[in-house]
Each structure stands twice: as C-alpha cells, then as structure tokens.
Amino acid sequence: MMKEWATVISWQNGVALLRCEPHSGCGSCNARSGCGSNLLNELGPESEHQLKVAISQPLEPGQKVEVGISEGSLLRSASLVYLTPLAGLISGGALFQALLITDAFTALGAVSGAVLGFLLARTLAAKIEGKSDYQPTVLQIGLPPTAIRIQQE
C-alpha cells in the first residue's frame, strides 16, 4: 500500500478535499538543494495536488489524514497511461513502415498510433475511474488542529 499524509482543505456531505504536497522522488535523504529529483518536482506547473476522498466522518480544515492506494492499482494505472500510447506509437509506425515504406508515412503512422493509444487509454481510464480499487482510502485520521491546546504557565 502506497501511503501519504494529506491536509484537509474542506469536508462536505461525506467528501473530503485533501491537499498532498509532493516530496523528493526517492525520499531517502534531505539533500533538497543538490537533488535532481527535487529539481524535477519544481519544474512542474503545480507544487501541490488536490484529491477528493469519500469519508463519512466529519473532518476539519487543517486536519491531517493518511491516505493510501494499493500498489497494484497504481501500477495498472501507470501502465495504462504510459504504455498504451507508447504501444500505439510503435505499432502505428511499424504498420505504416511495412505498408508504405517511406519515412514520412512511418512518422505519420507513429503519430496516428500514439493518438489512438492515448484515446484508448482515456476511454479505459474513464471506465475504471469509479472502481473502488483505484480510489484512495483514508487509513488514519489525525487530531483536529483545535483538539490540542498548549497552556503556558
């Protein structure tokens, strides 16, 4: 099970909106300035991710929860997203190369195959989107921010 702590942004009608902040790719050290994984994370357009999780227990904004998703469903999702367009690209290029022989048609076939692979991945992803195996679940719930009070003497 892949686990990550997230912060509750809001909770309404049994659905919590959570914010997950990405960490460095390997997570094995704190070398933020010299790590290539950290630099790649910063190149992306968004430095935090939001997700919706169904949970019946009321949550407060700022509360921490641990969410998890099974490795198998994560690997299947990644394979669908990355390998389906890649297989389409290779198949389309090989088919057009065998039928039409010229490089221009091979490139056209590869692009066409990649587009068809992307559309197939999108269609399959829409079918599995609602399945519970592919949804994150709440594993642990931290105390609300208002539950802990420090008294100074």
From TrEMBL:
Protein's UniProt keywords contain Translocase: no
Show the stretches that span the lipid bilayer: 80-101, 107-125
Write down the InterPro entries for this protein, in alphabetical order: RseC, SigmaE_reg_RseC_MucC
Write out the entry's keywords from A to Z: Membrane, Transmembrane, Transmembrane helix
**Is Cytoplasm among the key words of this record?**
no
Q: Name one Pfam family in it.
A: RseC_MucC
Stored NCBIfam families: PRK10862.1 (NF008115)
| Name used for this protein in its record | Sigma-E factor regulatory protein rseC
**This protein's encoding gene:** rseC
